[in-house]
Amino acid sequence: MSPRPMVRPGGRSARVQESVHAAVRELEAEVGRGALTVPLIAARAGVTPSTVYRRWGDLQELLSDVAVERLRPDGPPEDHGDLAADLTAWAEQFLEEMASPPGRAYVRDALLGDPDGDNAGQCSDYAAAQIAIILARAADRGQRAPDVEEVIDRVVAPMLYRILFRRGSFGTGYARDLVTALLAPREPSAGANPPLGGR
Amino acid sequence: MSPRPMVRPGGRSARVQESVHAAVRELEAEVGRGALTVPLIAARAGVTPSTVYRRWGDLQELLSDVAVERLRPDGPPEDHGDLAADLTAWAEQFLEEMASPPGRAYVRDALLGDPDGDNAGQCSDYAAAQIAIILARAADRGQRAPDVEEVIDRVVAPMLYRILFRRGSFGTGYARDLVTALLAPREPSAGANPPLGGR
DNA sequence: ACCTTAAAGCAAAATCCTTGCGTCAAGCCG
DNA sequence: CGGCTTGACGCAAGGATTTTGCTTTAAGGT
Fold first, then answer.
1. Which of B134, B153, B166 has the highest number of chain A CBs within 10 A, making it the mutation to test binding with A?
2. CB neighbourhood size of A188 (10 A)
């Protein structure tokens, strides 16, 4: 069903995989996402369609694979010397990338052709790893910090919910507000939280 | 691209739409979700495949349409006489339904064939409407309550994030913990939140 | 009752997906 | 170093799906 074989680096499989991935990226930029087909991609990559079908099974699984690669962070988050600054900067950049039209497309693709939830899980792991780095820095500085799960629940999840389930665009201020609400101790008023800042 | 025409009730279009939707539901139960094809559905519905392609454009958009219908709540949430009880019960049931294998499939389908984010937005609106009812009841009782956006950010979004991005199953206790953390004022300790209960 | 318009039926053509079989490359063992 | 095993790829045929032009039917309005 989902072959997705192990690929040893340098082998022929690796070359084919890279060639196909590159073809997807090129054609996506040239003809647009909706016009992608397996035969088209295969032709550009210099392989036969059946190779693509056997390795990925499906156009969506292939796009999912490529999307995950594009969503992989290319380096550790910037260090601003302070937990709040680190988290805010990371969240703002994350939101900006994910909320952009191409970003949304990648997130949806990663989620899409993915019966096992395997690719989506990898995306989540990427974010968790970045957050873990930020929190570890805070711990090194002696700052008290929430744990990764809490940051995911309170910051990452709301942002992705908006990206996936609501089409309206929203500024990076939303990310800042979420981080602020997470870190700032809240006055023990009633059940209600203080209203978020700029919306 | 996305025809999705206006459908006057009682007209032929409405009959076709209902017939096709019914065919999807029946066949999904009979042959399984993965074996669904447009020609198969069209045959069961007593229409030609081209009708389905013209109206929905695509198998995924059709499945998305059907999924949204299945995700529509069938009634107002139960009234337990207390905000915390209402929210907890609703969140637990929501999580249970959405985290089940069929529930996950519906959520994914609703998100999937949906270039405009239109169907997904409708799902979000369903949940928001249910929450608004619960919060309005609380206001009627004079209870202080958060607003809908906050419940979505703190309860709905984390649950859906887990459903979509992490394959591990989790109990309804997660829903209860989220509601508790939302409603309970938190001791103004350091930046860190108190750990959630059972995980 | 006729007219207008939008959607559905029909059928052909194009495209895509699947599959069996032969070939080739990569890793492994002698 | 050379033969062997395994897995992936190319090729091509077959079947299924998707697209499309044209015709027909039904719904709503005049």
1. B153
2. 10
Nucleotide nearest to A17 (CA to C1'): D8
> CB–CB of A52/A41 below 8 Å?
yes
d(CA B146, CA B144): 7
Give which of B164, B50, B17, B35 is closest to B99, Cα–Cα.
B164
Q: Which residue carries 């990648």 as its tokens? A: A106
Which A positions 118-137 lie with beta carbon below 8 A of chain B?
Answer: 118, 120-121, 123-124
Q: Where do the domains of chain A lie, and which CATH numbers do they carry?
A: 12-57 (1.10.10.60), 74-183 (1.10.357.10)
pLDDT mean by block of 10 residues, chain B; 199 residues? 50 93 98 97 98 97 96 97 98 96 94 84 97 98 96 98 90 95 70 45
Q: Classify residue B101 by burial, with Cβ atoms within 10 Å: 0-12, 13-18, 19+.
A: exposed
The interface predicted TM-score (ipTM) is 0.89
